[in-house]
Fold:
Amino acid sequence: MTLKISARESDSHKKTAEIIKNGGVAIVPTETVYGFAVDAFNIDAQKRVYKIKGRSQKKPLILMTPNIESVRLLVDIPKKAFEIVKMFWPGQLTLIFPTTETGKMASGGRKDLGVRIPDSEFMLKLLKDIKKPIFTTSVNVSNKKSAKSSKDVLEFDGIADIIVDGGQCKFSFESTVIDMVRFPYVILRKGCLDANELLKYI
Structure:
């Protein structure tokens, strides 16, 4: 049975954090789109998300983090990234970094991982409560449209362990993605943030 709660509940982030820390799969609202969220160090939980979405395990999940320091164990962060982070995090920007050896173990051997600090009150509270990164991916069946409202996620009722209702996502559009694995850095996906504004910093 799926627990369904409102993001407006004062302890919603705590309830969600406990489920994630215990290996569960959560559906959470962000300012971009709804996401599946699991413990970044729980391989079995990651596999559940891939199965739920029907997603190829060759495709990466995204790390969401309460602060950039918490992902140093998992990714190598170039100096240039800190300038970008200062300007655009928390926000609708995902940065791809090369993984460390620990990061490869946590991600099934991936050589790079995307990282984002979301600009969402609920998500920031959740991340601070968990005190470590989580893996996320958009709520949808693979190759279908991402969930942008609480109604869109109902098809996963009974499948996820918890659904957090945050209403309509503020932007209802995916984050912008920059590949910072090697220079010159490349915008891989145009999303919420203005790509022309980002080009000034990369």
Summary: Residues 43-53 form the longest helix (11 residues). The two ends are 46 Å apart (CA to CA). The first strand starts at residue 3 and ends at 6.
